[in-house]
Amino acid sequence: MGIKTVGKLAFPAILLALAACSNSQVRGFTNTSVGHSRTLYNEAVRLDKMGDHDAAIRDFRESANLGNVKAMLRMGAAYAIGHDVLINKTRAAYWIKKAYNKAKKDGDDDSRKQASYIWDRFELWKY
Between the CA of residue 101 and those of 55, 68, 87, 92, what are the distances in Å? Predict the structure, then answer.
């Protein structure tokens, strides 16, 4: 209960911070995959707002697998606090590491800082 409650309260703040991240250039993927990953990400955000959380997580995961850093951050944060998925710090660490490395490679300092924040906030180095 404690982790779940704290997590539910922390998730809106994390989402606001993610929304503030730069949505600038995405490098390393073809225009088709970048466009598809952005479309999936935007659809996932819409579904999440509508309350269709299972579909939202599915689309966030697919977008993350296509290389969308914001989707990777959302998946990591979701697993860290149990937002629409069971808390799984190992999976959270996987997605946050992946987001950090991709953001570093792309020169996306905003996403890299967000990944570092989530990593530290949820002590994911333990997993």
Answer: 26, 12, 23, 14
Domains in the chain, ordered, with CATH? Answer: 2-18+30-126 (1.25.40)
> Tell me: the pLDDT tens digits for 59-82?
999 999 999 999 999 999 999 999
DSSP 8-state class, residue 26: -
Nearest one of 115, 110, 94 to 85, comparing CA atoms: 94
CA distance 92 to 61: 12
Q: Which helix (H) or strand (E) holds 11?
A: helix 2-20
For 20, other C-beta atoms within 10 Å of its C-beta total 10
